[in-house]
Amino acid sequence: MKVLCDHMLGSLATWLRILGVDTAYPSNTMSDDEILRCAKVEGRFILTRDKTLAVRAKKAAVPVMLISSSTLAAQLEQAVEALSLDAAGALTRCTVCNTPLVPVEAVEAQPHVPPKVFARQKQFWFCPSCKKYYWMGTHYEDMEKKIAALMKQKSGLS
Ligand SMILES: [Zn+2]
Question: What's the gap in Å between 23 CA and the centre of ligand 1?
Fold first, then answer.
């Protein structure tokens, strides 16, 4: 599943990347024409808050979903439901730039990680694009809880 979030959906884009979805997030200088072309060329499902863009996407035969809510929780719920997402691919993608993360040896990560973190963690990942190291710290645990709660909520609804 590859998606493109319009520039009004930055938080949603980050969360979809957390869930492992290949998510493009074009800058707000990108025109609707460019967005439509990008989605078509890269085979991306457009998520948008913009009704005009949604209508144009339909006319151009680009799959599109109009996101109805302005709150992140409701947006994420709508996307998870419509795209049948689960947490299987969670935390495999850089939340900053969308690049798939690469597992790295602890010795390689050590110089880039605070000593306290290094003492507690065994596994590290690296984004080859923005050179950022990831580990399953408290941030990860918070996200994991949120994802689990969302999935539970979803299965409760269906
Ligand atoms: Zn990155």
Answer: 12
CB 10 within 8 A of CB 72: no
Residues 11-50: pLDDT tens digits?
999 989 988 999 999 988 999 999 999 999 999 999 999 9
Write out the residue range of the structural domain in which residue 17 sits: 2-89
Q: Domains in the chain: how many in total?
A: 2
Q: Find, among 1, 134, 138, 155, the residue nearest to 65 by Cα.
A: 1
Q: How far apart are the CA of 139 and the centre of ligand 1, in A?
A: 17
95 assigned to some structural domain = no
Tell me the pTM.
0.81
* 60 CA distance to ligand 1 middle (Å): 31
Angle, CA 46 vertex, CA 41 and CA 51 arms, to 5° = 125
